[in-house]
């Protein structure tokens, strides 16, 4: 029911129904009184108890030596003057608050990033603020915030790394590479995204991840012992998945060097990153051949000796360069 001049007059004269009386008294007690007062309503028609509530709320001095109508009429005007002042004050305060809050929010969102790089022959373990642990293989770059703010945990990566992601269902963990995006809640997997290679490979050891090409390319869900390969070579990018033994893709972090049916060029690149040397191939007969080998914390000469025997070739050293021929 809308408050009107007539209802207020009936209330003052004691002619209201119980329902109307209840509504008027609720209105007199409410904070919306000064904004909903009926236009041209007779102040004299307001019951004295209601007027005391209004005048008390705004600390208006009700002088007894003046006619009630004059005092209340003047006080009514004061209410609207006070309301106008309050509007200005609240407007200024709101502007200041919002401006200050915006500045504080901007400062709060000024995220500080760290960047960690590994050189050839170097491996590192990095602990992130959320408890996630990242093992970086040689020639890798990890860029991440000192602390994760907002609704996601995002970082950038290139190279090869093993991720053991801390579980947090409220904050998805997102890794962005040059060509792909990986999103998880908590899992363990190996990610390979080398700048020198056209494919990005993810192998899941535990849990589940969402793997997709960017922007807006193929997307797939990978679970334990599944591999996803996003290939950008050629005119149309492609996504392939297959089942593998995840352990062999993570072996490098435990000092195990595994080369599974690699071309000589691929094997040479692996050895260059692993031992921080230069491998040169000086034999046409070696082109196109492949090599498979497994080593635990090996020396370079141990690996080259095995390759020479398997491929029926020789090697020699010239400073930091090793030549297969």
Tags for this model:
single chain; 325 residues; alpha+beta; Jelly Rolls; Phage tail protein beta-alpha-beta fold; 3 domains; 13-stranded mixed beta sheet; 3-stranded mixed beta sheet; 8 helices; rod-shaped
What does this structure look like?
The chain is of the alpha+beta class and 325 residues long. It has three domains: 5-108, no CATH class; 113-250, Jelly Rolls (Sandwich); 255-324, Phage tail protein beta-alpha-beta fold. The protein is 32% helix and 32% strand. It is built from eight helices and 18 strands. The strands form three sheets. Strands 1, 2, 3, 4, 5, 6, 7, 8, 9, 10, 11, 12 and 13 form a 13-stranded mixed beta sheet that branches. A hairpin with a 6-residue loop joins β12 and β13 (238-243). The chain is rod-shaped. The protein starts with a helix and ends with a strand. The model is unreliable at 31-43 and 62-74 (pLDDT under 50).
CATH architecture of the largest domain: Sandwich
Low-confidence stretches: 31-43, 62-74
Helical segment count: 8
Beta strand count: 18
Overall radius of gyration: 38 Å
Topology pattern, helix = H, strand = E: HHHHHEEEEEEEEEEEEEHEHEEHEE
What share of residues is helical? 25-40%
Q: Please summarize the sheet with the most strands.
A: 13 strands, mixed
Shape: rod-shaped
Provide the β-strand percentage band.
25-35%
Mean pLDDT, all residues: 82
Q: Kindly report how far apart the N and C termini lie.
A: 99 Å
Q: And the CATH topology of the largest domain? A: Jelly Rolls
CATH class of the largest domain equals Mainly Beta
The domain tally reads 3
Give the class from helix and strand content and strand pairing. Answer: alpha+beta
């Amino acid at each position: 029911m809308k408050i009107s001049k007539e209802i207020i007059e009936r209330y003052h004269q004691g002619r209201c129904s119980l329902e109307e009386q209840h509504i008027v008294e609720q209105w007199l007690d409410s904070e919306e009184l000064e904004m909903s007062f009926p236009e041209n309503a007779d102040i004299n028609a307001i019951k004295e108890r209601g007027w005391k509530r209004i005048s008390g709320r705004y600390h208006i001095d009700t002088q007894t030596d003046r006619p009630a109508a004059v005092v209340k009429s003047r006080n009514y005007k004061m209410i609207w003057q006070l309301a106008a002042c309050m509007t200005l004050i609240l407007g200024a305060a709101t502007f200041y608050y919002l401006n200050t809050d915006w500045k504080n929010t901007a400062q709060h969102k000024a995220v500080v990033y760290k960047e960690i790089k590994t050189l050839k022959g170097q491996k590192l373990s990095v602990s992130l603020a959320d408890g996630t642990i990242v093992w970086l293989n040689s020639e890798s770059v990890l860029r991440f915030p000192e602390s994760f703010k907002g609704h996601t945990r995002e970082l950038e990566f290139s190279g090869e790394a093993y991720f053991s992601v801390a579980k947090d269902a409220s904050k998805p963990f997102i890794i962005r590479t040059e060509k792909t995006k990986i999103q998880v809640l908590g899992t363990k997997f190996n990610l390979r995204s080398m700048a020198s290679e056209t494919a990005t490979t993810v192998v899941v050891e535990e849990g589940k991840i969402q793997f997709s090409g960017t922007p807006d390319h193929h997307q797939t869900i990978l679970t334990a012992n599944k591999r996803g390969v996003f290939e950008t070579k050629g005119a149309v990018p492609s996504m392939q998945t297959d089942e593998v033994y995840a352990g062999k893709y993570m072996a490098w972090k435990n000092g195990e060097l595994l080369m599974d049916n690699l071309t000589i060029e691929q094997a040479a690149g692996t050895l260059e990153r692993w031992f921080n040397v230069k491998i040169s191939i000086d034999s046409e007969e070696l082109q196109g051949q492949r090599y498979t080998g497994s080593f635990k914390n090996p020396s370079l000469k141990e690996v080259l000796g095995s390759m020479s025997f398997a491929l029926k070739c020789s090697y020699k050293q010239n400073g930091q360069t090793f030549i297969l021929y």
